[in-house]
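As a warm-up, study this chain.
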Amino acid sequence: MVFGLPILSTLIWLPILAGALIVFGGRDRPAFAKWFALLTSVVTFLVSLPLWFQFDTTTAAMQFVEKSPWIDQFNIHYHLGVDGLSMPLILLTTFTQVLVIASAWDVIRERVEQYMGAFMIMQGMMIGVFTALDSILFYVFWEALLIPMFLIIGKWGGKDRVYATLKFFLYTFFGSVFMLVGFLYMYFQSGSFAILDFHIMPLGELAQILIFLAFLIAFAVKIPMVPVHTWLPDAHVQAPTAGSVVLAAIMLKMGGYGFVRFSLPITPDASMMLDWLVIALSLIAIFYIGLVAMMQKDMKKLVAYSSISHMGFVTLGMFLVYGIVANSGDAQGAALGMQGAMVQMISHGFISGAMFLMIGVLYDRMQTREISDYGGVVNTMPWFGFFAVLFAMANAGLPGTSGFVGEFMVILASFKANVWYGVVAASTLVIGAAYTLWMVKRVFFGPVANDQVGSLADLNRREFAIMATLAVAVIVLGVYPAPLIEVMDVSVANLLIQATTSKL
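Now compare it with the structure written out below.
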């Protein structure tokens, strides 16, 4: 409880109500909209901290639970709770939101109240996704948050924003319909929409396969996985900087979260039978999409394709469990892959957010993202160059940064499942370094490319504070990931039991 109010409901509804107030009360008052959004974001982050400090790491049971009737006729409840899999993602959301609001401070000048309000409302809905324990409540939050992101890209995006927005909406909405069909089937079989009831309900082989495929379509689009990944580069390129940050740092993680909350515990036998499909798609993303990133001339597209490649480690780590258990019965090896996937999600949130913010700083000054338009930036922006190179190295998986930890854990687990999985996964260390160093060399080093680059101003105090905060997060998680692993350890162990226990 915070000031007598339930923590999870406060985290959901405080930003949503604040966003509504900003939209309707901040018209023609941009200063009010910005300061109120920033204040609410900071308060929401502070409210989320007790989730970490009061979290019981010895149990896999849901904590901070809230439950009350919502639609009695269909046994639908307003049911919230968190475990070691969802709690870190909530903290990532509240942490990122503060930086997102600060990053747009001097950039957005048109309809500021709508821009800030959309981000606040979207934050509450994203937290709702990570806390919902009723599948209909989950679905409502999952679908509703598309609306503010649709408006953010469609109103404040680039010249092709309408095309990118419609593609983003249609892809994600299409996938979600299959998920809803799966929920309805399980409701008619069990009489409940509770996610925890779905975990224990018996399901036949065919039912599991169909439900697994329905979930796969929904979550694969959100991550996104090959071949339903093409909406992401378009959305990133057209979205304003803050939209790209939220999209990469938080919204992509919802797909990975869906696999651990739904696919693995609800359909364990289908997950085992079709693990080869997810692993194959993951390895294609890691290797092939890494090569695609290497060919990009637009910095945002390069980082967008890089995100798809890095998120391949998330799904790979999650589905290696069956190969490891079948080969050696090594529960610790299976847990290593799952923990690596979760660490990768948090790490990617920090690094991808930082990379898009970095590109946004350059775009605000130069109005171009083409790599060929830059060169020698470090000569005129030394502090910016320092942070940019740090984040780029983290993106390439440099040891000592968070980008190394999750990927290395998944690579180790890959070798335990199949040596060829490990070889392909490890190739990202070469490919990632190639496209990252290529961009760093062309953009930041060498002689100053032109007079426009030569006149660039270095980071101001606001931008410096944002970059320094993310740099600390990337280094701390890279040097000392133990607290994060400890928080999720028992929940991962419980998930592995669910994922490897047959329902047939």
